[in-house]
Amino acid sequence: MKRRALISVSDKTGIVDLARELVDLGFELISTGGTYKALDEANVSVQYVSEVTGFPEVLDGRVKTLHPLIHGGILARDSIEHMEQMEQNGIRYIDLVVVNLYPFRETIAKPGVSFEEAIENIDVGGPTMVRAAAKNHGRVIVLVNPESYEEVLSVLRESGNVPAGMRRRLAAQAFAHTAEYDRLIAGYLERQLESTGSFPETLRITAQKIQELRYGENPQQKAAFYINAEAGAGTLANGKQLQGKELSYNNWIDMNAAWKLVREFESCASVIIKHTNPCGVAMGQTPLDAYESAFAADPVSAFGGIIAFNRVVDAACAEVLKDRFYEVIVAPEFSPEAREILSSKVNLRLFVVGRGEFGKVTSGWVSRSIEGGYLVQEVDRGTTSVNEWDVVTEQKPTKEDLVALDFAWRIVKHVKSNAIVVTDYRHTLGVGAGQMNRVGSVRIALDQAGDNAKGAYLASDAFFPFPDSIEEAAKAGIRAIVQPGGSLKDAAVIEAANRLNMIMVFTHRRHFQH
């Protein structure tokens, strides 16, 4: 008796060619709905599922394959008992199941999609067939991914059968397919609940391995890169490497820090990152202008760093970049001329994220693993507007002062706490990061700024617990300070700023980054 294959797919990539090959290999085909139509129109010999079940598709197509003659054929084993029951009930074996599911992910991604439309794109029969075939993979071949079609056809052509190891691997793919599908549905429904924005009772993390990395933070640690299934276009994870050595674990961490920071600015900007902290940030009229200002902030630390731009890197900028050593350059795009110029730096990694809108991960959460668990929090979205700030000193800022303070405030959010940033109107002068006390970070940033601190601006990611930092800033000539406020010593800090004839504003929002 001929072997039978049941084919019912939403993604019809390669399905006609697969079906033709299966017929040539002696399979009878059973199909449903749109798949049947596609195969029939291609003159592939195929039987409609209702002809097998003797029961029509009903309830707007919600019920078509949920029938004992289908699932009995999939779930039956090669045992005498099962064969006797099949003969008594007119059931025939189904030997191959080719199914992928309704496009739920694509449906809910559409702007303005209704809840009713989303619900109608929840597949029921498809997952049931996939799970049944995967459970019975010792006898049934299950295919959910068009990329596996040719591999299976190849072994069928060669030996007429699929070996046990491959069947088990295909079954694992099938269960992964339905698990991810259910995860998407559960997440969507949870987001429709009244407690919008709350965290789910179960954290479902699904990611696909893109590549194994050379090593982790250190050579003795293995590492790999996975992409979040919900990451959209315009996210770093969905970017593309154009040239250079394979990206390392540390490269990815630093690239992420650089890309997040450069996205803070609407104007043309450049960021240079070293060990996740910015050693130079600047705005400019052109990418080259911005880059040169960022580089000038700390040329020693810039060596071997990672650069990010929020504009297309052009030839003029590339000509300068090629003469200095960097690990990675991240940008929305590189002009053809820039790519040609930088191609001589064979180890330099060029990474494009795309020119469109900056992407996002739809959950709006960030997670971090600890030993035995995960911490999850909302993304720290943006900074407070200058219109929400409070001027707390006798000296009042000008419009120009507020522009400069806003620039500094956007940067300090991305520096490891305790974080201090000293800037002028358009580029960093000094950065103090990750110190155990705030005045230590202040001293580092001011020392780096040197004489340029006179008349400059200072941002702090959290409140000043004592006036000592204000006094240090005044000695260096800082004109104005932006900080969240909220310390028990706020009155003493404000008094020190007034006594030292400085401007101070409170943002009422902290930006710790641990």
Describe the overall structure.
- By secondary structure, the chain is of the alpha/beta class.
- It has three domains: 188 residues, Rossmann fold; 121 residues, AICAR transformylase, duplication domain (Cytidine Deaminase, domain 2); 121 residues, AICAR transformylase, duplication domain (Cytidine Deaminase, domain 2, 3-Layer(aba) Sandwich), CATH 3.40.140.20.
- Helices cover 37% and strands 19% of the residues.
- It is built from 19 helices and 21 strands.
- The strands form five sheets. A six-stranded mixed beta sheet has the order 8-13-12-11-9-10, with helices on both faces.
- It is elongated, with a radius of gyration of 30 Å.
- The termini are far apart.
- The mean pLDDT is 88.
What is the CATH T-level topology of the largest domain? Rossmann fold
Uncertain regions spanning at least 5 consecutive residues: none
Widest β-sheet, arrangement of strands: 8-13-12-11-9-10
The average pLDDT score comes to: 88
Biggest beta sheet summary: 6 strands, mixed
Features:
Rossmann fold; Cytidine Deaminase, domain 2; 514 residues; alpha/beta; 21 strands
Question: What is the gist of this entry?
Answer:
By secondary structure, the chain is an alpha/beta fold. The chain is 37% helix and 19% strand.
Question: Layout of helices and strands, plus pairs?
Answer:
Blueprint: E1 4-9, H1 15-24, E2 28-31, H2 33-41, E3 47-48, H3 49-53, H4 68-75, H5 80-89, E4 96-100, H6 104-109, H7 115-120, H8 125-135, E5 141-143, H9 149-159, H10 164-191, E6 207-213, E7 223-228, E8 240-243, H11 249-262, E9 269-274, E10 277-283, H12 287-297, H13 299-302, E11 306-309, H14 315-321, E12 328-331, H15 336-342, E13 349-352, E14 365-370, E15 373-378, E16 390-391, H16 399-412, E17 420-423, E18 428-432, H17 438-449, E19 457-460, H18 468-476, E20 480-483, H19 490-499, E21 503-506
Parallel strand pairs: 1-2, 1-4, 2-3, 4-5, 11-12, 12-13, 19-20, 20-21
Antiparallel strand pairs: 6-7, 8-13, 9-10, 9-11, 14-15, 16-21, 17-18, 17-19
Helix pairs in contact: 8-10, 12-14, 14-15, 17-18
